[in-house]
Specification:
The protein has one helix and nine strands. By secondary structure, the chain is mainly beta. The termini are far apart.
Length: 156
């Protein structure tokens, strides 16, 4: 084979290599980001004076929640638990109040109306207690039975 033949063969091989558009490694399929669910505590009056009563609503937005068990901690020297508020949405709820901690569970197989899971009434002893509420979620599932705890964020 002549040098001209080697050059032609080398040029043809280079052109074939450059013409190949297939990626050398397969790109990993990107998964869609998980929808973020947000648990919120909503106070009916964030500036309530001592002696006033307020409602604290637990609401989950961003996902259709079907069940939740959680704990609401608070400063029992500044706030007093009065009662759970009745919500007329067909959900089943139970509450276990202790000084400084209210444990609750709720289930609504078709989802909670407007994400409203629970409503609790408190009496204000000291206004500083209005900032003491802390929500901890033990269990949360969507209507499709997906575990929402790993994607659940909390907003005061």
């Amino acid at each position: 084979m002549s040098i001209l033949s080697y050059r032609a063969l080398a040029l043809a091989s280079a052109m074939l290599a450059l013409a190949c558009t297939e990626p050398r490694r397969a790109d990993q399929a990107k998964t869609a980001p998980s929808p973020q669910a947000e648990a919120r505590l909503e106070l009916s009056d964030s500036l309530a004076a001592p002696g006033a009563e307020i409602d604290v609503t637990v609401r989950v937005l961003g996902a259709r929640l079907a069940s939740m068990t959680a704990r609401l901690a608070y400063d029992s020297t500044a706030m007093r638990f009065v009662r759970e508020q009745s919500l007329d949405d067909g959900a089943t709820r139970v509450v276990n109040p202790q000084p400084g901690l209210v444990r609750f569970a709720a289930i609504a197989p078709a989802g909670f109306a407007e994400g409203r899971v629970y409503a609790l009434r408190f009496s204000v002893v000291r206004s500083s207690g209005l900032r003491s509420f802390q929500l901890s979620t033990d269990e949360a599932h969507s209507v499709t039975q997906a575990n929402l705890v790993p994607v659940l964020t909390r907003k005061p």
